[in-house]
Specification:
Layout (H helix, E strand, L loop, with lengths): L8 H24 L4 H13 L4 H8 L3 H13 L3 E5 L7 E5 L1 H23 L3 H20 L7 H8 L2 H4 L6 H6 L2
Antiparallel strand pairs: 1-2
Helix pairs in contact: 2-3, 3-4
Length: about 180
């Protein structure tokens, strides 16, 4: 028998709760470190994956290049990241999280990490391997699946009057009536 979407409601709800929980922690850490949550996403990528190009950071975080440029400028100015010439491509740069920032964020996440480790310790090695594989599969799915519904551009266009959005031609009468 093929499972129905209702069979997965508990998992989906738990994932929603997990996302909300991580948002709460992220907000707290961001506030304590005088950063914003998107800054933390960038720093998390650099900490987890090592030095990266702005393009690689944008791919991993989903942050637009323009927004990312502003974030990187601020993080570099504040001494949280260092920028280096990319030894493999002289046209690009690599960014790396500073050791001071790693120490600061490690300290801020320390209590949570210790609590998580205690939770993980109750699992067997095969259970941990299954969960790790499952989480990696979830991340892959999340990164390749676009959100449903209209894009922000589509939503903005739908909010405009028909004459402005371009979905209907503007008549000469409509233009004359505006005068």
């Amino acid at each position: 028998m093929t499972p129905s979407p209702d069979d997965f409601a508990g998992i989906l709800r738990a994932l929603q709760d997990l996302r909300i929980g991580f948002e709460i922690v992220t907000e707290r850490v961001a506030k304590a470190s005088r950063l914003n949550p998107r800054d933390l996403s960038v720093l998390d990528v650099l900490h987890a994956h090592g030095p990266a190009t702005p393009t690689a950071i944008a791919d991993k975080t989903g942050i637009t290049p323009t927004t990312l440029a502003a974030i990187l400028t601020r993080l570099e100015r504040d001494g949280r990241v260092n920028r280096y010439r990319n030894p493999h491509d002289a046209r690009s740069s690599l960014l790396a999280i500073t050791e001071d920032t790693v120490r600061e964020l490690t300290q801020l996440y320390d209590d949570l990490n210790n609590d998580l480790i205690r939770t993980f310790a109750a699992l067997t090695a095969p259970e941990r391997a299954t969960i790790t594989g499952f989480l990696h599969d979830l991340v892959t799915t999340i990164h390749r699946t676009p959100p449903s519904g209209p894009t922000p551009e589509d939503a903005a266009k739908q909010a405009l009057p028909e004459e402005i959005s371009g979905s209907a031609p503007i008549s000469a009468e409509a233009v004359a009536g505006e005068r």
